[in-house]
């Protein structure tokens, strides 16, 4: 019975954190111009800086992001005693960074597929 109470409390805390994060992102986006980056922040509920902090990356390098994502995702695997909440934050951070890299790629133009 105690585990069930703790489980419900944890679930409620996660839901509240997600809701508050989304609300904060919406407020943040309203204070900025309606650029594509602000729209993505509101949609994803996480700023680019937050995503970079979660994945512990400095710059938007696909290799570095993928490496840190895989490491943190595996380290927080629930089957290995990790935290599902943290693992989900890692997934959301990677999604946010991937979206940002896609926006940056679109800014550079569609024919930036030079072979090297």
Describe the structure.
By secondary structure, the chain is mainly alpha-helical. It contains 5 helices and no strands. It has helices at residues 2-31, 36-44, 48-55, 62-75, 84-108. Helix 2 (36-44) runs antiparallel to helix 5 and helix 4 packs antiparallel against helix 5 (84-108). The protein is flat, with a radius of gyration of 17 Å. The relative contact order is 0.11. The model has no long low-confidence stretch (mean pLDDT 82).
Topology:
Layout: H1 2-31, H2 36-44, H3 48-55, H4 62-75, H5 84-108
Helix pairs in contact: 1-2, 2-5, 3-5, 4-5
- 3D shape: flat
Question: What would you call the structural class?
Answer: mainly alpha
- How many DSSP helices? 5
Helix content: over 70%
**String of helices and strands:** HHHHH
Which consecutive residue ranges, at least 5 long each, have pLDDT under 50?
Answer: none
Task: Describe the structure concisely for a colleague.
The protein has 116 residues and is an all-alpha fold. 74% of the residues lie in helices and 0% in strands.
What are the main properties of this structure?
116 residues, 0% strand, mainly alpha
